[in-house]
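Tokens for chain A. Residues wanted.
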């Protein structure tokens, strides 16, 4: 097994058991609803929360949360009067991502059925 320290979390990859991340409980709580929607198995492990990612859940997370959040920053920059500068910040990007998650999630699951 390979283990890496990434600051906010520890990353481990095992050829037999897939990819695992260990997050702090506070970081996990911030993302809990997203993780539950995706069905990412979680367990407490040494004072942290261990997440068990599959290729499917990792891809869905990137599209539904990371990409939509970053798209929110882009939308912010395009719709403010500051000449293309995103100035509404993280709260706006999170709000934007939440506005589109349900629609994208439904369509994503139709095109990419959950794999085991």
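Reply:
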């Amino acid at each position: 097994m390979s283990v890496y320290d990434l600051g906010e979390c520890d990353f481990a990859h095992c050829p037999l058991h897939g990819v695992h991340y260990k997050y702090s409980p506070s970081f996990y709580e911030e993302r809990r609803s997203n993780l539950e929607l995706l069905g990412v198995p979680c367990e407490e492990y040494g004072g942290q929360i261990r997440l068990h990612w599959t290729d499917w859940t990792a891809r869905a997370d990137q599209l539904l949360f990371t990409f939509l959040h970053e798209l929110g920053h882009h939308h912010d920059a395009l719709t403010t009067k500051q000449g293309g500068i995103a100035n509404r910040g993280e709260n706006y990007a999170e709000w934007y991502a939440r506005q589109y998650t349900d629609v994208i999630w439904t369509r994503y699951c139709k095109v990419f059925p959950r794999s085991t």
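The two ends are 22 Å apart (CA to CA). The helical segments are 25-38, 55-79, 89-111.
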